[in-house]
Write a structure and sequence with these properties.
single chain; 424 residues; alpha+beta; Helix Hairpins; BirA Bifunctional Protein, domain 2; eight-stranded mixed sheet; three-stranded antiparallel sheet; 19 strands; 42% helix; 22% strand; RNA-binding
RNA sequence: GGAGAAAUGGCAGAGUGGUCGAUUGCGGCAGUCUUGAAAACUGUUGAGGGUCACACCUCCGGGGGUUCGAAUCCCUCUUUCUCCGCCA
């Protein structure tokens, strides 16, 4: 959520940023917001004046009672009763106007960083880096869903029987490889200074609002209506919300957290060839990294995160590229996002495996995540997060790119974690 | 799930209707002393709105009510603790 004072003082910058996102009705929305804010403050000012007067009268009444001048006190009482009617009215108006303003602010996405390319779709993302050799596969090489069946390591039909489409069952070496990847990623992250946490997989409404999943992505999360809890779509939600309503000391920066969690996404309405196998699931595993940073350091931190993920992919020897997302493809809350994609040789397409973003103060403003700056004033912190990494597509890329006529050759870095070199 | 107790500033802990946004202690920060540190002493130290800056307004778990006036009284919800029940 943008700060209303920022919108008020930087109307043109905000409009320019929203244009880059192809945000509809930007001008109307922004002006409505500015107007609502003005109205809110006008009501507040009037209300404050009345409350001040009424506070003063109440004190006087107290004094009069003490000195026994009950007649005079009775006269003042009459006055305060009138003020009370008016203040009640104003405070109702204020509440309504504040809610209106809040609702408008919830609908306005983050302003993209200057270097974010303009564009409307994935086509316009900027390829900023690519490395790793795309292997030449042998005759009869298969996509991962066929390999999964051939070696009996992932059973999609069985998952469908138990829960539904998009809930695979990992079996034998497949299950073990999952566990190996999770441990490997966590170890890489903790070695890089990220502090490991285990967090709830269900979150309340306040947490959903804090990181920006609510109110706009309501339908993408599984929701338990009985207790009003949401299954997390990513560890970003519970981990970042650790710092909701927190005022940090400047010396506490930077804060680095990593967590493994399953992720749940309803992903309603997307079916077809591109969602086969592991490409898109309702439940998947992911290891996440989260940073809370001083505003002056957040873009340096973003670079560190990008390099960290690079390091892992290099060690796994997977061919990958890095995209700087364009305004139209970026998430609602992000100011700058780099997507990592691994090349799936057998499918002949790139698969997104990580998304690393700087949210600047957008989440912090919702979270009320602040720090005391050197002048002793509260200032919003910057939040960042990235996948390090999402399992299913790494697994898909790994199965497809590492396949040989003899079986799947496990990358060296993972062998100590899974205890076998081949799936055959 | 049942019964009882509680919820106050970073922490501890006073405050049961009228200069209480809140005594005090610890912690934090600044200073004095010291070569430096510790100790001691002095000062300072919640958040939000509003203002050029003041003034002023709001907040004592959340919401509502009584009253001219509520941290203090009433209702309600939530959470925590203790006891009982159930249980991986």
């Amino acid at each position: 959520m943008l700060q209303v004072a920022f919108i008020r003082e930087n109307r043109e910058t905000v409009l320019k940023g929203l244009a880059k996102r192809n945000y509809k009705n930007a001008e109307e929305m922004v002006d409505k917001t500015i107007l609502a804010d003005e109205e809110r403050r006008a009501i507040q000012t009037e209300l404050d004046a009345i409350l001040a007067e009424s506070n003063k009268l109440s004190k006087d009444i107290g004094d009069l009672f003490k000195s026994g001048e009950t007649q005079k006190a009775a006269i003042l009482k009459q006055k305060t009763i009138q003020l009370k009617d008016r203040s009640k009215e104003l405070s109702d108006n204020l509440q309504q106007k504040s809610t209106d303003l809040q609702e408008l602010l919830y609908l306005i996405p983050n302003i993209p960083n200057e270097i974010v390319p303009a564009g409307t779709s994935a086509e316009d993302n900027l390829n900023v880096f690519q490395e790793g050799e795309i292997p030449k596969l042998h005759e009869g090489a298969m996509p991962h869903w066929e390999l999964a069946k051939k070696y009996d390591i992932i059973d999609f039909e069985l998952g469908n029987k138990i829960a539904g489409a998009g809930f695979p069952v990992y079996k034998g070496k497949g299950a073990k490889l999952q566990r190996a990847l999770i441990n490997y990623f966590l170890d890489k992250n903790t070695a890089a200074g990220y502090d490991e946490v285990q967090v709830p997989h269900l979150v309340n409404e306040a947490s959903g609002f804090g990181t920006g999943q609510l109110p706009d992505k309501e339908g993408q999360m599984y929701h338990d209506a009985t207790d009003n809890l949401y299954l997390i779509p990513t560890a970003e939600v519970p981990v970042t919300n650790i710092y909701r309503d927190v005022i940090l000391k400047e010396s506490e920066f930077p804060i680095l957290k990593t967590a493994y969690t399953p992720c749940f996404r309803r992903e309603a309405g997307s079916y077809g060839a591109h969602v086969r196998g592991l490409n898109r699931l309702h439940q998947f595993d992911k290891v996440e990294i989260v940073r809370i940073e001083h505003p002056s350091n957040s873009y340096a931190a973003l670079e560190l995160m990008v390099n960290h993920v690079k390091g892992i992919l290099q060690e796994l020897k997977l061919p990958y590229r890095i995209l700087r997302l364009c305004g139209g493809d970026m998430g609602f809350t992000s100011a700058l996002t780099y997507d990592f994609e691994v090349f799936s040789t057998a499918q002949d397409r790139w698969l997104e495996i990580s998304s690393v973003s700087n949210f600047e103060t957008f989440q912090a403003n919702r979270l009320k995540l602040r720090f005391k700056n050197s002048e002793g004033k509260s200032e919003l912190a910057h939040t960042l997060n990235g996948s390090s990494l999402a399992l299913p597509r790494v697994l898909a890329g790994l199965l497809e790119n590492c396949q040989t006529p003899e079986g799947i050759k496990i990358p060296d870095a993972l062998v100590p974690y899974c205890g076998f070199e081949f799936i055959n």
